[in-house]
Each structure stands twice: as C-alpha cells, then as structure tokens.
Amino acid sequence: MSELPGITLSSLDLDRLEALLAGLANPGPEADALQAELDRAIVVEPRDVPSTVVTMNSTVRFVVEQTGEEFERTLCYPRDVNGQPDRVSVLAPIGSALLGLSVGQEINWPVPGGRQRSVRIVEVVYQPERAGDYHS
C-alpha cells in the first residue's frame, strides 16, 4: 500500500471543518474520509500556510497528465456548491482528497464511466490565506 502524500491545513480550516462534521445529522463514509484527512494533517496558523497549498475556498488549476488538458475547480463547503460544476465539496471524495495538497502533487480524478484520470496540481490560482481573507 502506498503512503498518502503529506498535507498542510490551517487551524482555521480545521476548526470550521470539525464544526461541519459535528453538525452532520447522518455522517457517512464521506465524513469518515474527511476526518481521516484532518487527522493526518500538519496544522499551522492561517498566516503560515504556504501559498502553494490547497485550502478551503481555494481555486486550483489542474493538468490531466494523459492529455495535457487543463481545468480549474474551487474547493468549498457543501452549502456553497449550489450545483455549480466548477465547485467541489470538501465532503465529496475528491474534495477531501484535495484538501491540503500542494502544487506539483497528483491525484486520481473520477470521470464518467467509473474511470479515473491522473491530474496534477499546476497552480493555486486563489487561496484565501494568501489574499489575507480569513473570513471565507
């Protein structure tokens, strides 16, 4: 079994995500997956989060390794998805897996038909901590 990549998380995101999990009426496997990510994270103060790390409300640009295609997604809280295809809930399996990753790291992204494609984080286009926005 391969070891999971290291992740960094801000203390503010940790507090908000723990509150989210505590407030779930029917936590399921998605909540367990998110909790596992929180449990293995290195937690730092928001001002100390490297600018290349995916945090909550970050917009991330990816490249599909097999094709070179690029796309962007924003990691958000479930209430903020609003059916928008460019947003990914932190409770979705891909969302919890993205949390805390850094530019250059790869992840398997599910695609229709039950397949997956390997994508690499190319850029954190927007990160609240880098922008000084601690209220998102």
Describe the structure.
The protein is 25% helix and 29% strand. It has 136 residues and is an alpha/beta fold. The protein has a single domain (8-129), classed as Chitinase A, domain 3 (Roll), CATH 3.10.50.30. A hairpin with a 3-residue loop joins strand 6 (106-111) and strand 7 (115-126).
Fold topology:
Elements: E1 8-10, H1 11-22, H2 29-40, E2 42-44, E3 59-64, E4 70-76, E5 87-89, H3 93-98, E6 106-111, E7 115-126, H4 128-131
Parallel strand pairs: 1-2, 4-5
Antiparallel strand pairs: 3-4, 3-7, 6-7
Helix pairs in contact: 1-2
**Which fold name fills CATH's third level, the topology?**
Chitinase A, domain 3
Q: What is the tally of beta strands? A: 7
Shape: globular
Structural class: alpha/beta
Note the run of SSEs as H and E. EHHEEEEHEEH
Strand adjacency order, main sheet: 5-4-3-7-6
Q: Which consecutive residue ranges, at least 5 long each, have pLDDT under 50?
A: none
What is the CATH top level name? Alpha Beta
Question: Quaternary status of these chains?
Answer: single chain
**Integer count of domains:** 1
How would a crystallographer describe the biggest sheet? 5 strands, mixed
Radius of gyration: 14 Å
* Annotated CATH architecture: Roll
- Could you report the average pLDDT, rounded to the nearest whole number? 90
Q: What portion of the residues fall into strands of 2 or more residues?
A: 25-35%
N/C terminus separation:
36 Å
Helical proportion, percent range: 25-40%
